[in-house]
From TrEMBL:
It comes from the Eukaryota. InterPro entries: DPNP (IPR006239), Inositol_monoP_metal-BS (IPR020583), Inositol_monoP_superfamily (IPR051090), Inositol_monophosphatase-like (IPR000760), Inositol_monophosphatase_CS (IPR020550). This is 3'(2'),5'-bisphosphate nucleotidase. One of its GO terms (molecular function) is 3'(2'),5'-bisphosphate nucleotidase activity.
Length: 450
């Protein structure tokens, strides 16, 4: 697993940096002019009239110190001015990329392309008889598709954002012990690379089996709270993938523990047009959620804005839940649905395809109540999906109504359970869930003692 990596250098282009610098200087001058003007008057009086008297000396000193205070306060003024004008400055986490589409446009584009390329691989493995399934130490399955997709996405992150940190679900330990499996993964990676040429300047390539293993191991970062950190689930819902159900490729960028970009590729969800399969959803904080077909030229595809169904009472809606009864408590979810007056049968879907579905308005509520209180949800299972729903007009919280806390490492240990719903019914749903959760699991544990 990789060690902590250096802080991210600015990723903006030199042109943007220069424009920012000029505008910033202008704003500083403006700030100085407006804020010190009233204080210059005493200095003039002082100079013209009685330069030697004690009174004017005091006046003079006061003017000078007020002026220096005002000059200092002109800097934050300029920062605020520029940030209101959507200009970016280096933050604690390194600067955001500005492209024609706004902040994080480059991150979103690279993430979309990387997820699309990974989907070429997962689709090939999905329809192949050989999946190379092995069971991990936590008894969950992993396949050629999980390893291969992780290698492809990490090669893209390494190429485009080499200083960013990465948290990924998989590592290469099983492959290093099993050369046959490793060769199968390499076959899948090299086939996917030949099947999806182009964009090498953004996505890079994987030159051999050794480099593939190195890429797979780039996801061992543990600090989710500091700087720029990508979180990837290369095949979310591996059980669904193996069963022929839904799965998702989920990639998110966290900056100082806040999800800023989320991309979900869902190869098995119905597409946007008749007969099409697969959707690619992406969200940037503050900019909404958009959807494109998962296949085809992403740069040419017109992003379609998507919003959740804005129902005003929960009983008008339906809810979705996972297929696996070991991953969420179907009985508790049914109780909550009953309490909300929901009469529709639950829609069961594997993976973050549930977040995608409700963000597309193909359902309203997502309930994920724990089967055991000791389970800690993983950040790669929720980072991308929660932003995609949040930016489509939804609210995501835990079963006690607390916002998801992505700052505490590779898991969401400060949260229990996950719920998502349209903003309009958030309070109603949160209350019903809280009532049932307290009854069933007990009161919310205090923070940091979970
Ligand atoms: N006991 C559990 N409770 C909640 N989620 C779980 C549990 N065990 C595994 N998972 C995770 O559920 C996710 C799939 O969600 P869903 O059931 O909604 O499709 C997987 O990422 C899986 O993680 P993992 O990949 O580590 O097994
Ligand atoms: Mg997962």
């Amino acid at each position: 697993m990789c060690a902590k990596r250096p802080r991210t250098p600015p990723t903006s282009t030199p042109i943007n940096t220069n424009i920012n610098a000029v505008l910033f200087s202008l704003a500083v001058c403006l700030g100085i002019l407006f804020t010190i003007a009233p204080y210059l008057a005493p200095c003039f009086v002082d100079f013209l009239l009685l330069p030697t008297t004690t009174t004017t000396l005091l006046l003079h000193r006061a003017s000078v110190s007020v002026c220096s205070y005002r000059v200092a306060s002109a800097i934050p003024f300029a920062r605020r001015f520029c940030s209101n004008s959507k200009l970016q400055f280096s933050s604690r986490a390194g600067s955001r990329t500005m492209a024609s589409g706004g902040a994080y446009a480059r991150e979103r584009r690279v993430a979309e392309l990387a997820v699309q390329r990974a989907a070429v691989l997962t689709r090939a493995v999905y329809s192949s008889r050989v999946k190379g399934t092995v069971t991990k130490s936590d008894a969950s399955p992993v396949t050629i598709a999980d390893f291969g997709a992780q290698a492809l996405v990490f090669s893209a992150l390494d190429k485009s954002f080499p200083s960013d940190n990465i948290i990924g679900e998989e590592d290469s330990a099983d492959l290093r012990e099993n050369n046959d499996l490793s060769s199968l993964v390499w076959d899948a990676v090299s086939t996917a690379l030949s099947a999806s040429p182009g964009h090498e300047s953004d996505l890079g390539s994987v030159t051999g089996q050794g480099q593939m293993l190195e890429f797979i191991d780039k996801g061992g970062h543990t600090d989710s709270a500091t700087g720029r950190v990508w979180a990837l689930d290369p095949v979310d819902g591996t059980k669904g993938f193996l069963r022929g159900g839904q799965y998702a490729i989920a990639l998110a960028l966290l900056v100082d523990g806040v999800v800023q970009v989320g991309v979900l590729g869902c190869p098995n969800l119905p597409g946007l047009n008749e007969g099409e399969e697969g959707v690619l959803l992406s969200a940037i904080r503050g900019q909404g959620t958009v959807v494109k077909p998962l296949s085809g030229d992403l740069d040419a595809a017109e992003p379609r804005k998507t919003t959740m169904n804005a129902i005003t009472v929960a009983s008008e809606g339906g809810f979705c839940e996972g297929v696996e009864s070991g991953h969420s408590a179907h009985d508790v979810q049914a109780r909550i649905a009953g309490k909300l007056g929901i009469t529709k049968a639950p829609v069961q879907l594997d993976s973050q395809a549930k977040y995608a579905s409700i963000a597309l308005g193909r359902g309203e509520i997502y309930l994920r109540l724990p089967t055991k209180m000791t389970y800690e949800e993983k950040i790669w299972d929720h980072a991308a999906g929660s932003l995609v729903v949040g930016e489509a007009g939804g609210v995501v919280a835990d079963m006690y109504g607390r916002p998801l806390d992505f700052t505490v490492g590779r898991t969401l240990r400060e949260n229990k359970g996950v719920i998502a719903m349209p903003r309009q019914i958030a309070e109603e749903v949160k209350k019903a869930v809280l009532d049932v959760a307290v009854e069933h699991y007990g009161p919310p544990p205090p923070k940091s003692s979970l």
